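Dear Dr. H.,

I hope your travels went smoothly. While you were away I took the liberty of generating a structure for the chain from your last submission, since the lab meeting agenda had it listed for discussion. I wanted you to have the full record in hand beforehand rather than looking at slides cold. The sequence, exactly as received, is reproduced here:
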Amino acid sequence: MNIETFDFGLGPVPAHRHPNGGGWVAETAYVSETAFLSGNARVYGNARVYDNARVYDNARVSGDAQVFDNAAVSGDAQVFDNAAVSGNAWVSGNAHVFDNARVSDDAWVSGNAHVYGNARVYGYAHVYGDAHVSKTPLMLIGFEYLIVITNNTVQIGCKSMPLDEWSPDAFPEENCPKIRASADAITTLARMHQNA
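The corresponding predicted structure, in token form, is as follows:
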């Protein structure tokens, strides 16, 4: 392994190119040989990427963060502090996962979403758009679409709207009778979750 220096943003530090993809790894960080790290991706600080995890495009993993199992971080996404991404989870776009947050299972975090604090995003949850999640989102099942309630948004299927703009009128009764019939309960749960 050829050790060089690379500037991850705070001045040059000892680093090397990862043999599986060519991305930059600081000597203080760890990326297993089985993980993939593309040419513009960077892993630094005390971060760890292992198993069959993939970090590509312009993604960054830093601090004490971990990405493992079959998880992927792509686009301009960042995973840092003590955050962890695992399972088959995918963090993409301009999303940030930080503090002590966890994203796992088959969950997706994308767009400009931020997952932080002690939040846990898991299962088949999708957090996207401008959502901010600092506590575990509330997921409601048994409706026509999965409903995910975050700190500031209600996400129903592929529609995401600020909590203050949530309205059952966005869902035609002929397509979503359960959502329409439960609109008051969904609104109450969303407000309680936001204020908890």
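Two observations you may find useful: The two ends are 51 Å apart (CA to CA). Residues 183-195 form the longest helix (13 residues).

With kind regards,
E. W.
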